[in-house]
Structures are given as C-alpha cells and as structure tokens.
Amino acid sequence: MRQIAIFCILQLHFAIAFCQAYQPLAADTALARQAVEAKRQLWLSRLPANSNEWLKEAYEGRYNYLQYAVQNQHFLYGSALQPFLDSVVAEICRANPDIPADDIVVLPSRYAEPNAASLGDGAILINLGLLRRLENESQLAFVLCHEIAHYTLQHLEASVEQYGAVVDDKGLQKKIKRLGKAGANTEALGLLGKVIYDNRRQNREQEAQADARGLAYFANTSYDVRQAIRCLELLDSIDREKYPEPLDLKAALATRGYPFKSRWLEEEASMFGGSMGESEEEVFHPDSLRTHPACQERIQLLNVSAEMKQPAGGNVYLQDSLNFRQWVRAADYELVEGLYAFGATAAALYQCLKLLRLYPEDPYLNTMVGLCLLQVRSAMENHDMEEHVPLPGHSLQPDFRQLCLLLHNLRIRELAALSYHFLKEREAQFSSYERFLSALRESQKHYGK
Asked: Which residues pair with 75 in a beta bridge?
C-alpha cells in the first residue's frame, strides 16, 4: 500500500508540475561565458612555453567550441537545473579532499547523445540525453565521479598527445590520400580504421582507469556504491530507445479536417535504396560504433574491486527523489527543445510524438508538433530539407525512418495544411498558451497562401 501511495503522489506531483505548458530552461549566458573564460585562463597558465603549435591549436579549438556552444545556448549552465548538479558535485568533493574542487564545473547540455565528457581543466559536460536515462541520483553521482577521474588522471592531455602523433605522421596521411585517389576506398578506410581502433584501445584503457578511480571516489561518498554497476548496465543498453513502443504515424498525425494519405508512407524501391552502410560493416566492428562500448568488461572489473566487497549501504538519494524524477522528465522535454533549436527537426518531431503517446494533453508537446511541421515546410521552401530531415536510409531506426520518409513525401502545401489542421483542432484546448497561438497564427499564414 505504501508503494502505491508513493506512486500516486509522484503522478500527482508531475501532473501539477506539467499541467501548465512546460517552460524550457533558461541558461545564464553571461555566467557560462565567465566559466568558460576562467577555464581558458587556467589552461593558458598551465601551457608550457615550448608547446607545439598543434597542441595550442587543439586547445584553442576546444575553447572556441565552448564559446560557440555558450553563445548558441547549447549549455544550460546557470539554469534551474544547476543547483541540483552542483549539490552532487559538492558531495563528491566533500568526500574526496584530494579532488581540486575549485576546478570542477559541470556544464549541462541539451545534446541528445546519452553521454558525458571531461573537457579538461575540470570542465565536465553532461548531456541531458544521458540524464533522462538514469534511474536515480546515485547513478548520476557515479557518472560525475567517472568524469572527474578522467580529469585527475589527465586523460584528455594523453589523448591530445596521441592526436598530435597522428597529425605529425605525414607518411600515414599521404598513404590514406594516395589510396583514396587510387580508388581503393575500402583499403583507405581500413587504414583509417586501424588508427581509430588504436585510439579506441587507449580509450578503453582510460575508461577502465577512470572506472577504478571514479569508483574509489564514489565509495567515499554517502551514495549507494552498488549503483555503479547498475549505471554501467544501463549504459550497456543505452543505444536502445527510452520509449520503444512502435509509433503509429497515422494515428499520431490524423486530423478530422485533413485526412492522412497512404501515399505519404510509400517509397520507390530505388529512391532511398543502395548499400549505404554495408561497406562500413566490413571495416568497422559494430561495437566500435556503440555509444558506450565494452560495458560488460567494465562491469566485470568493477565487480571484483575492493569497493564492491564492502558491506552494502549508502543512500540512493541525498536530495529529494521527486526532484531527481522531475529533472529526468524535464530532460525529455529539453531534448525536444534542443533538437528543434539545433535544426534536427525530424528528430525533434520524432521525440515529440513519442512523448505525446504518454502525455496526449500536454500543451507544449502539441505545440511543438505544429512548430516542427512548420520548420520542415520552411526547410523545403529554402531547399535545405536534408539539413533538417535525414534521407530515410536503412541505417535509421525503423520508426524514425518511416517518419523521415513521410516528411520527404509531403508536398510543401501538404505540410502547411497538416500543421494548420493539427493545431486548429486543439485551439480550444490550448487557447491560453501563447506559444501555441503563435504557432497557429504562423500555420494559418502559410496555409492561406
């Protein structure tokens, strides 16, 4: 009964939190810019005077990227999410005084990839694409411990040095170019694959080292150390979709005023066919393309560690569990917002339709469907469809491929009509939501052309 009561409270809490239209998180751009500049100054203070030019270029390139990402709202640094993340970092640093706490800055990003990264000089990137897949605060803490370990082990510096060795290897570069010019693309790709695999091997060694040190950091905290294993189990299957239920596009996009046309899902055999992707399978092992390879090996190593032999204990949550769950759900919405803002319109629409199956009355999600359709219409008008909608090749996930096929099959007039009727049928329901009304007005303008 207690578990049922808790479940009901959670559902009520989320219903209250999202009954009004979701408001996307707002970053503090000025604060983020200051944080990035502080990291740049730290790097400059540590850069040896006799450093190679490629080393300087590599690090300058990193900070140019960070500045670009801040300017274009990729990061949610300083948003309402920040105190939650900073609290987890504070516990890790409290329990591990050897960590240079003043160096650690967590940069939450809207990126969809379920990943995190140590960017050097204590900057830790955590994608909301990863946060939305985690089950509890302890797993988040282990991820952060792992990335902090990469920093204290100076793995980024080692990777940059390896990159420099490849850059300086003129013979390797010439051989790849020569093979490419001779038409021996598979052999050239194989040679490039060897370089990538060598880097992968070093990366896997670094991952094992970061797991070991990260687990030591994690075991010192008040979190549940067993969640480290569960976290890696999640990462092992994270390339599968969070919401795997099939997507019925006809049901999702059907409107009374504009019936769904079967032609939208038809394809010509040669239109998007070919063997694209098959040649890659001959060169690259599928494991090399996974977001988190070799997780089972990493789990085995952690299972025999001294930390895992300690008596079970620790807290799954140190902050309110409702708080964590709310941020996980918010990450689903931020994924849609980020994909839309980055111009990955088909992917944004796909995630939106997936979420609408769970929350069909949500004003934000219904509005975003209309906005995505309008953005695809604009892309078609501007002749840059493939920037927003991938060609529906067979390498895509089946449901996403079908959506891309549909969007490519729609005519510009049909896109305008579909967006208008989708929004118009919901006007009475969401008439108090200004973003919805703005999207409806935009759709009316294009539908009336």
From this structure: 109
Q: How far, in Å, CA of 292 to CA of 289, rounded?
A: 9
Written as six digits, the tokens of 20 are: 């009004």
The Cα–Cα gap between 421 and 406 comes to 17
Half-sphere exposure of 387 (CA within 13 A, CB side): 14
* Tokens read off for 38: 């502080």
* Cα–Cα distance for residue pair 230/301, rounded to 1 Å: 14
Q: Which two tokens stand for residue 245?
A: 């239920």
DSSP string, 377-429: HHHHHTT-HHHHS----TTS-HHHHHHHHHHHHS-HHHHHHHHHHHHHTTTTT
In which residue ranges of the chain is pLDDT below 70?
Answer: 1-19, 160-202, 269-291, 293, 449
Helix axis angle, 155-168 relative to 185-220, nearest 10°? 160
* 172-183 residues labelled b (16+ CB within 10 A) or e (exposed): beeebeebeeee
Distance CA 264, CA 7 (A): 41
pTM for the model: 0.83
Distance CA 25, CA 184 (A): 49
Q: Supply φ then ψ for residue 227, to 5 degrees.
A: -70, -15
- Would you say 374 and 442 are in contact if contact means Cβ atoms under 8 Å apart? yes
pLDDT digits (tens, 9 = 90+) for 9-68: 444 444 444 458 999 999 999 999 999 999 999 888 888 777 777 777 777 888 899 999
